[in-house]
């Protein structure tokens, strides 16, 4: 199949192209790169990476070289091609569908008037603690990145800027979710009993 007739990359393919835009990487390096910070918001299984790399290479978007290793098996190191760079840039500014998030906890909140308030408040505070822990991790990573990046952190042409953007999104999300859980738990405190099933 020629590059012109090849299907467009999947979202995983574009994620891999984004990592390769930062430099050549092995399949293992790409898998690790998908964990932090990409993995905070978009997940991929390890088993998906190598088949996707093969599809990208078949489409002419990446190429690879074999690096010999003395005491370990040879490894493939992947590089983004000019066509891959063009595909990534086109995707970055293409229309993106607004995601419709499925959140079980929010769904529970819709019917929480049917349960015992004290038990529901305990469950919500556990979620608040989990989001607070995630928030602390994002803030720690941003502080670390700020020290390493220096002035490049605020340069939209620098890879550090993209890392900052992801971490700031994480901080905002985790802080808002933590606050919502704490608000809802507080509202349930002292209620004493479930509301009447006839409540609209």
Protein architecture, described:
The protein is mostly helical and 200 residues long. It folds into two domains: 11-92, Winged helix-like DNA-binding domain superfamily/Winged helix DNA-binding domain (Arc Repressor Mutant, subunit A, Orthogonal Bundle); 104-193. Helix content is 56%, strand content 7%. The chain contains seven helices and three strands; from the N terminus they run αβααββαααα. It has helices at 11-20, 27-33, 46-58, 82-92, 104-110, 117-149, 159-188; strands at residues 25-26, 62-67, 75-80. It has a three-stranded antiparallel beta sheet. β2 (62-67) and β3 (75-80) form a beta hairpin. α6 (117-149) runs antiparallel to α7 (159-188). The protein is elongated and about 65 Å long. Residues 193-198 have low confidence and may be disordered. Residues 102-188 form the Transcription regulator PadR C-terminal domain. InterPro entries: Tscrpt_reg_PadR_C (IPR018309), Tscrpt_reg_PadR_N (IPR005149), WH-like_DNA-bd_sf (IPR036388), WH_DNA-bd_sf (IPR036390). Pfam families: PadR (PF03551), Vir_act_alpha_C (PF10400). This is DNA-binding PadR family transcriptional regulator. Residues 16-89 form the Transcription regulator PadR N-terminal domain.
